[in-house]
Amino acid sequence: MLKLENVHTFYGRIEAIKGITLEVKKGEIVCLIGSNGAGKSTTLMTISGILRPKEGRVSFEGEEIHALPPHRIVSMGISQVPEGRRIFPKLTVMENLEMGEYLRGKGEIPPLSKGGRGDFENQLEHVFNLFPVLKERRKQLGGTLSGGEQQMLAIGRALMSKPKLLLLDEPSLGLAPIIVSKIFKTIRELNAEGLTILLVEQNAKAALKSAHRGYVMESGKVTKEGKGGELLDDPDIKKAYLGE
Ligand SMILES: Nc1ncnc2c1ncn2[C@@H]1O[C@H](COP(=O)(O)OP(=O)(O)O)[C@@H](O)[C@H]1O
Ligand SMILES: [Mg+2]
């Protein structure tokens, strides 16, 4: 479904990712682990079109996407939940969710609401079923939500564009263990419904447990790949990322 081939991405003269090759197959949860500064966020931003690779190829469902603007990539079915959530604090929960739909409309596919409110309402109901607390707080400003609720809102907003592939950047960062379990449970549920997921996590153990496959990144390169369970049992990974 998604393929990165020999992708290099720079910030000015700094090469943050140095020839990444990876793939995500339809229906998979794939996780990307690695320490701080390894290039995980840069990889996601290169996929979503926020950053342009200097070299290499990114393709989605057989089409090259690395030269497309971000809104076109959203309209093709890729949606990103950014690191640190970045919801709109001065907008209500409902307005934040509408924004997710709007972003999809900037591409070639018309917004869901253009076909009547039906699709919009369906997607909204789906998000509210996943996260009932968002329904309760729909008139509240985003900035007044707890960290966990903001993460749910960020995921909900990304889902409003009806993605085929969801990119999640450290969804568990800074959240209490009980909320972390809820977020991982939701990720598995979404996947069971057919959504393909690329998950970036510092919480390597939880990520590898939920993922079908994983890649390890170090200093802008992929150093290891394998099935979730294989990576969990790998002595080097245990030592470096699982604190064992
Ligand atoms: N805006 C930026 N300008 C310059 N360098 C950056 C910027 N963002 C990230 N970097 C550098 O790129 C590398 C990869 O960062 P990042 O992708 O954020 O890593 P990770 O998400 O794995 O923690 C790091 O060395 C980081 O310092
Ligand atoms: Mg990051």
How would you describe this protein?
- Strands 6-7-8-3-9-10 form a 6-stranded mixed beta sheet, with helices on both faces. It has a 4-stranded antiparallel beta sheet with strand order 2-1-4-5, with helices on one face.
- Helix 3 (93-105) packs parallel to helix 6.
- The protein contains 10 helices and 10 strands.
- The chain has one domain (2-241): Rossmann fold, CATH 3.40.50.
- The protein starts with a strand and ends with a helix.
- It is of the alpha/beta class and 244 residues long.
- Helix content is 39%, strand content 25%.
- The chain binds adenosine-5'-diphosphate (ADP) and magnesium ion (MG).
- The site of magnesium ion has 3 residues, from helix 1.
The total number of structural domains is 1
| Count of β-strands | 10
How far apart, in Å, are the first and last alpha carbons?
34 Å
Unique ligands: adenosine-5'-diphosphate, magnesium ion
Q: Which CATH class is shown?
A: Alpha Beta
Taking pLDDT < 50 over at least 5 consecutive residues as the criterion, the unreliable ranges are none
Share of helix, binned: 25-40%
Mean pLDDT: 91
Strand content: 25-35%
SSE topology string: EEEHEEHEHHHHEHEHEEHH
Record keyword descriptors for this entry.
244 residues; alpha/beta; Rossmann fold; 6-stranded mixed beta sheet; 10 helices; binds adenosine-5'-diphosphate; binds magnesium ion
